[in-house]
């Protein structure tokens, strides 16, 4: 294996002037191919080569971090809460007088094999890696805000507690929080060992491809595309409900939703996550304002009884807990220490899926890391975000459940009865939700564009001038499709539960342990004399097949591999039950003739 002393950032790549080589230990080498001349997803690239360049990149990042730490001023809490816009990203390597950085990204379409074949000299190789360096600008503070921007999390949690009761709600939310943090760590571990300037990871699907091949990449990309599209659509619908409520239902509900779809055409034009870090910063503080408004309103006013058809109690025991008597008096607010009487387990499972929604950001963790200046710092942002989410969301969910009981609505700010407070919460929530939807749309378009248009149709990368024009054109189309899909389904909570079960739960709790097992098996199977040799382009292995897999599985902390497999199977079982309960809810909604969003009648109409 190559000496790690060659990984210093000042050294050249020893492969640059090699045509082909021969491996050792009886393993023949492949013909040499430069990284920038590879296909975007080349199955001939081995784990060992990915790992070699990943370690090379991490060494460069660590050296740069040490230099920055020695020359930077002191870091205080304000610099974390309000990250500086002056950070220009990863430093570029010297090109000996040639143009620097992202010049190659702006002038060459590297998705075209013919263009890549022209890149053979060392200077252009450096521009290739510099193009990938230039894309990495986000800080860990920006990652913190991006992770905590998930608008559907805090305002769906009171509904989850109302569906599960005090004890099970607290227990499940705590378990979900701990496991979500653990899953984030597993994704970070895989990213750090596979991502490099030569072979950058752009999405969740890239990790799956490098560890398990094409099938997992397709599965991840399809599910990620579905989740992001539905997330955007769901936020458009919830914002439409809020706007219809604020307008006292004088504005057609379909128009209310369409307003936010059109707003997405504009907000969606933000392309880089560094710029989104500032929008996400604002969204977090706006969410805190909404939380304060709804808590104050819940503590001083009665629940919005006329919106009870959308409340958690409507899905528990045939809705008897929210049905008024003959005199029109609604039942008193009630709570349960354990699981409430649901008549079936479907209602409680739907509540559990809302709790899962609070930790649905893992799917775009690789995208966050791919645009970070120092991915090693991602753990700081992630753990701070998870702690923030747990403490704030837990307190908010319990508080709202304590005051509104079975009458809490999803999202909770729609369940306020006093119009002035209701409108204040709606206005702030709509702004924050639009930012969250723009973030989801940003990642969704990138996944679609990079995996379909760039790879199949050889479209130019988004870093090129032509790619930027494609981006401008795709945003309105994407938001329109999201609105049409979400608006056609009448049950908001049922749809969010289905998305949580089929997509969110998988990316947060099922796929990370699967990827971690694959990564550790391949990593631990590499012996001291094995690995990628950059001087020849060869990969040396002492064995292969089942013997190698078994050795890799049992090496090191083998018990963690066992735990991860059990963890993955448990998550799959929960996902199956959650999907069943969500589908039953949706079937019931369609059977009852519930209206979709293509009407002028708001689902909340009459809730004043």
- Tell me the major beta sheet: 2 strands, antiparallel
**CATH overall fold name:** Amino acid/polyamine transporter I
Mean pLDDT: 79
Rounded to an integer in angstroms, the radius of gyration calculated over CA atoms is: 26 Å
* Oligomer status: single chain
Range of strand content: under 5%
Widest sheet: strand order? 1-2
CATH top level assignment: Mainly Alpha
Overall shape: it is: globular
Helix content: 55-70%
Would you mind describing this structure in some detail?
By secondary structure, the chain is mostly helical. The chain has one domain: Amino acid/polyamine transporter I (Up-down Bundle). Helix content is 61%, strand content 1%. It has 20 helices and two strands. The longest helix is centred in the C-terminal third of the chain and has 39 residues, at 419-457. It starts with 46 loop residues before the first helix and ends in a 17-residue tail after the last helix.
Spell out the key features of this protein.
608 residues, mainly alpha, Amino acid/polyamine transporter I, two-stranded antiparallel sheet, 20 helices, 1% strand
Give a brief outline of the structure.
This protein has 608 residues and is an all-alpha fold. It is 61% helix and 1% strand.
């Amino acid at each position: 294996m190559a000496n790690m002393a060659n990984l210093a950032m000042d050294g050249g790549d020893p492969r640059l002037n090699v045509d082909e080589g021969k491996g050792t230990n009886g393993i023949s080498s492949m013909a040499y191919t430069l990284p920038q001349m590879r296909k975007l997803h080349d199955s001939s690239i081995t784990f060992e080569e990915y790992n070699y360049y990943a370690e090379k990149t991490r060494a460069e990042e660590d050296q740069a971090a040490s230099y920055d730490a020695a020359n930077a001023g002191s870091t205080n809490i304000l610099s974390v809460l309000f990250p500086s816009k002056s950070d220009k990203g990863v430093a570029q390597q010297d090109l000996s007088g040639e143009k620097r950085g992202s010049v190659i990204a702006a002038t060459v379409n590297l998705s075209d094999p013919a263009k890549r074949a022209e890149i053979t000299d060392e200077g252009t190789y450096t521009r290739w890696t510099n193009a990938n360096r230039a894309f990495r600008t986000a800080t860990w503070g920006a990652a913190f805000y991006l992770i905590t921007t998930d608008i559907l999390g805090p305002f769906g949690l009171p509904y989850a507690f109302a569906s599960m009761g005090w004890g099970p709600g607290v227990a499940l939310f705590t378990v979900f929080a701990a496991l979500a943090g653990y899953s984030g760590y597993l994704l970070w571990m895989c990213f750090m060992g596979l991502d490099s300037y030569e072979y950058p990871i752009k999405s969740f699907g890239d990790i799956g491809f490098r560890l398990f091949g094409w099938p997992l990449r397709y599965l991840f990309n399809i599910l990620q595309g579905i989740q992001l599209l539905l997330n955007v659509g769901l936020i458009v619908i919830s914002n439409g409900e809020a706007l219809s409520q604020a307008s006292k239902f004088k504005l057609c509900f379909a128009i209310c939703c369409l307003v936010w779809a059109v707003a997405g055409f504009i907000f969606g034009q933000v392309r880089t996550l560094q710029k989104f870090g500032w929008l996400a910063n604002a969204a977090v503080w706006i969410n805190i304002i909404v939380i304060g408004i709804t808590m104050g309103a819940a503590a001083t006013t009665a629940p919005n009884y006329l919106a009870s058809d959308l409340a958690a109690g409507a899905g528990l025991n045939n809705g008897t807990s929210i049905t008024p008597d003959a005199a029109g008096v609604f039942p008193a607010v009630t709570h349960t220490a354990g699981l409430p009487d649901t008549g079936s387990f479907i209602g409680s499972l739907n509540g559990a899926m809302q709790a899962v929604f609070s930790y649905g950001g893992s799917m775009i963790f690789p995208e966050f890391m791919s645009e970070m200046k120092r991915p090693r710092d991602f753990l700081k942002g992630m753990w701070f975000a998870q702690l923030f989410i747990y403490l704030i969301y837990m307190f908010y969910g319990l508080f709202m459940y304590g005051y509104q009981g079975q009458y809490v609505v999803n999202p909770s700010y729609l369940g306020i009865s006093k119009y002035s407070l209701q409108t204040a919460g709606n206005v702030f929530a709509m702004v924050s939700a639009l930012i969250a939807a723009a973030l989801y749309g940003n990642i969704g378009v990138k996944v679609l564009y990079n995996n379909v248009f760039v790879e199949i149709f050889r479209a130019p990368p988004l870093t090129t001038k032509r790619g930027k024009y494609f981006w401008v054109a795709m945003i309105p189309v994407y938001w329109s499709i999201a609105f049409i899909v979400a608006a056609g389904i009448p049950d908001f909570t049922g749809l969010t539960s289905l998305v949580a079960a089929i997509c969110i739960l998988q990316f947060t709790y099922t796929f990370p342990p699967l990827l971690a097992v694959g990564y550790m098996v391949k990593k631990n199977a590499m012996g001291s004399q094995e690995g990628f040799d950059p001087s020849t382009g060869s990969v040396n292995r002492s064995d292969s097949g089942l013997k190698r897999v078994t050795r890799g599985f049992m090496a090191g902390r083998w018990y963690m591999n066992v735990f991860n497999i059990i963890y993955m199977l448990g998550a799959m079982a929960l996902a199956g039950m959650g999907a069943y309960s969500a589908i039953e809810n949706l079937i019931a909604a369609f059977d009852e003739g519930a209206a979709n969003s293509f009407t002028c009648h708001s689902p909340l109409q009459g809730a004043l």
